Fold this sequence. Notes:
229 residues; alpha/beta; CATH 3.30.1330.60; six-stranded mixed β-sheet; globular
Amino acid sequence: xxxxxxxxxxLAVVLILAMTSFTWGCTTTTGAGRGAGIGAASGAILGGxxxxxxxxxxxxxxxxxxxxxxxxxxIGDYMDAQAEEIDNSVDGATVERVxxxxxxxxxxxxxxxxxxxxxxxxxxxxxxxxxxxxxKYEDTNVVIEGHTDSVGTESSNQQLSENRxxxxxxxxxxxxxxxxxxxxxxxxxxxxxxxxxxxQGKKLNRRxxxxxxxxxxxxxxxxxGELRM
Length: 229
């Protein structure tokens, strides 16, 4: 079990407000950020900016989608409960609450053999436990990101990251998580969270991130005060 790191909404909002001057001319649309006055498009841009500051593009995306007001508080409670269950049940994962989302980071070395996208038997069990929790909290969507270090060619690392993200997604689907909830993306070596000049840095960069965020049904339930727990 790993300790859940909490990135509080007040700090998230401060970061977003601090970065808005960089995106003043951007067009916004209605969506996840409307409670905080931030549209989906601007939220994605802010997520990229915040990601460059925090070292995680996934974290930045979740912060860019922060939802304000009472609805955001209800979603926050929903995500708190889900994050706690993941933290208590899924071994080998770092669980982080970000905005109204959840970031789950797996060390690729714990999921796969070297240069392989085939999940080990132990990691399959942990993905099964993650799937059971996602099925319980069904009003969320999931993005699975694959990342590598800089060892090897860019093209091979890109392909490996895509294959690893899809391996995790395929197993989640096999354990009953609806495919419509899941998106995958591979970033290869392009989005490190640490220096590739050290062994420890490379280890941190070899990872799979699972980003969990509210879907439209959950947002509507929160806005109307009818959120089902």
